[in-house]
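Progress note, project year one: complex with zinc ion.
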Amino acid sequence: MAPITVFQARKIITMDPNCPEATHVAVRDGRILAVGGAGCADQWGDVVHDHSLADAVLMPGMVEGHAHMMAGAMWKFAYAGFHDRMDPQGKWWRGKPDIATVVCDLTDHAQSLPEDQPLIGWGLDPIFFTGERLSRAHLDQISTTRPIAIMFSNFHLMCVNSAALAQAGYDHATNVEGVVKGPDGAPTGELQEMAAMFPVMRRLGMDFRGLSQTEAAIESYGAVCMRAGVTTVTDLYSQMEDADLAILRQVTARASYPTRLVPVLGVAGADPETAAARAQALARQGTDKLRLGAVKLMTDGSIQGWTARVKWPGYVGGQPNGIWNMAPDEIRRMVATMQAAGVQMHIHVNGDEASEVAIDAIEQAARHSPWPGARHVLQHCQMMGPDQFARCAELGICTNIFANHIWYFGDQHAALTIGEDRAKRMDALRAALDAGVHAAIHSDAPVTPLGPLFTAWCAVNRQTMSGRVLGAAQCVSVAEALHAITLGAAYTLKMDGEVGSIEAGKFADFAILGEDPLAVPAQALKDVPVLGTVLAGQVHLA
Amino acid sequence: MSVLPRLPLTVIGGYLGAGKTTLLNRLLSEPHGQKIMVMVNDFGAINIDAALIAQADGDTISLTNGCVCCTMGNDLFMALGDALDRCPRPDHLVIEASGISDPAKIAMAARAEPDMAYGGIAVVVDGQNWPKLADDPLIGAQMRGQVQVADVLLVSKTGGMVPPSLAVRLAALSRAPLMDLADLPQVAPVLLGGVAPAPQPGALPGGMAAHPAYVGWSHQGPEQFERRTLEALLAARPAGIYRLKGHVLSPDGALEVHVVGPTVDIKPAQSDSTRMVAIGLASQINRETIAAWWASAAA
Ligand SMILES: [Zn+2]
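Model obtained:
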């Protein structure tokens, strides 16, 4: 008989209404055997008591339903973002509130690099800077000989120094859209969109494919998750090739690997029949720690890039409506094919016109191929109102809401993108729950940092960077937010029978916390320390 | 400067069902003599003549004429890098842009990348459905945008004639030459242009000048132009030339020129003479007009 370990904790938040609170949880074979007091597992045989977590608070391992694997491997590049952020090793990188700090910190960082290695940075978001734009002149202060490229947080822009411009052959004679030029006719160093960035990325060895699927990338993603208390994580536009499956299986199978990984296959642009067949084949290759078989569809772009498809009255600045990355016709065909094949879909929808097209497509597909348990998931759902949530409830569609946007971009949305009225009701978890929709909330890491407690804080407080509350009517309780980052997200992955709460039969996946998130003030939810995780009964300390 | 010749990139745009795949099938089976690499999103609709297939494995189909067709996977720009690093490097890269996408976002890479040459954007316009798509409240702007960035407009499904109302609408959006796909005896001259400047003046290399539908012109000489003068000369080129390419000597080193429809791309190059090749449609231009235009500047 396998040994039984009984973990003692200061408090265990179970998310199980049959036993909401406990002090002990018994684990056998990686699963929860019993929950309650010190003697909860005595009827099952001899137990071993583990007091190492006795001072900690346990809650179900958190579930991140929308993040990307590159959130781990991005850290092989230098962080240049506005906010303080922790890397996979647990080191905090100071935020860079202005260009001077970007230059100063990256100059320090350059000292640690070999002479012949380019300096590559990421995470810069000039939407937060006032005044001057970052240019090659600033980066030349770091080095005029070492090529430097700083990728912006939206991955659509970068800024490079003169040495990198020279390697790409960009000069005053260059006449390429996206190579921004100053009044003197010379490139400023800002490069917009992939075509203009491509020559630099190719020469500097910025291999984005290498940020997923490699052993190192999978490992560092696991480390990021563990420090955030996440035990089940998606890679929500996996570009895995069939050849990548072996390494995914191998790395996730290690007992030291602290996370269950759910790669969701990107299918934008693919032939629907072929993609559905591939998803079905992948579904059969899953393990307890690697779940496969769902697909991700694209629709529109992003609101802060003015590329989301929004309904009337459009953008406050009068920008033209956004763009479709998959045409509505393609979306309908893909949705119909996946529904008929029994493949669960996650559908990116930022603007309310995009979410409407997606809901229409699912409704139409459901008429042809009824599938009550499909649990298709709309992802981001930023502008959905009660009308669309009601339709989701009718159709059994789940919503995963981009709550982090409220804090990171809420002020910008009110002032610059969709205006005050619609900004106040955006990322509306309250409306979703009131409509009876199964809902989760997410970070979209690396777009914003992985950290479900922070995401929950956003949904509870709806506070923006300027300190205002953006639409108090949409705030939810702490308990509701904790549900969204555990069972709510698990439901969207069809894993609510296995993870998301601490109850007998489920995997022994816990987040180890330094404080009780239900006891601290709601404003302090984001500051609750994450000490590590337990995955299948194995303790991983941060 | 790289040792290998630049890899020319042509992007095929157009909505779903417009006829991009049919066009690619035609291109792959024509006797153009070039080793073309065609990248598609999916083999789904590609239907290559079985007799032409030398080998098929997973995401690549090799043809007996030296061409290859492959799927680009999820990361287009990574695939672009792979094509550049491929050994031997293909003579020409042709990418099928997905139905709704902006082909210029891909084609711009050929202008940006020193190791690539601009081969232009050919947009396939569905002769029957395009007007309806262009007025669609959801995708109309993107449909019109594709036409706006096109270097060559190829109209499909015309049944013998481009409807005048369609031609007028397209002309209002684009200066690109408009061709009825059904009228084109071969598509390679339109999509790829000539291979290299021909040795004798007036003739085009390969088999592509042979057809009377196309007019070819080539020229070799010692003349030099300041870059600015060259740009002015190219801007004044006669209508009806849809492709023009070659090397031009200039005081600051030679320049490589690629003109496709309305787009002019110039990059530094190495050359010991000025050599140019032009192609147009016989119905729209003759060799003498092209020769006279160039001679006027060289004089
Ligand atoms: Zn995402």
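The pocket of zinc ion is lined by residues A 66, 68, 236, 444 (CB under 6 Å).
Residues 219 and 276 of chain B are 5 Å apart (CA to CA).
No further modelling is planned for this target in the current period.
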